[in-house]
Amino acid sequence: xxxxxxxxxxxxxxxxxxxxxxxxxxxxxxxxxxxxxxxxxxxxxxxxxxxxxxxxxxxxxxxxxxxxxxxxxxxxxxxxxxxxxxxxxxxxxxxxxxxxxxxxxxxxxxxxxxxxxxxxxxxxxxxxxxxxxx
Length: 134
Description:
CATH superfamily: Gcn5-related N-acetyltransferase (GNAT)
GO molecular function: acyltransferase activity, transferring groups other than amino-acyl groups
Protein name: N-acetyltransferase domain-containing protein
Largest sheet: 3 strands, antiparallel
Number of domains: 1
Distance between the termini: 31 Å
Keywords: Acyltransferase, Transferase
Radius of gyration: 14 Å
């Protein structure tokens, strides 16, 4: 878990994900309802993480800045999608332009939007886009 938290800290510094650093990052990485998680590891360093909750929501996907552009996120998504024959869902903040492009490039379909209970960088309730896997 310490290596995952260290990787998450690098992502938060680079991208502000999560928007608000959690009081307990280990608990944030293992949310209630989580059933499975995958890590991308190289030379004992965590490069990325993704989890699925019992309601088939993909959550906590991140790749460290140093590991980007190497297909790590796509491989994590492939592992998660291979774990169930059912479609997965996810939410992404409208501020996550690179994430939105990534999901849409892989065929994820936006099915709606809503306001979050947490605040975005502008101090307003974040706009969340809801996606379903191909």
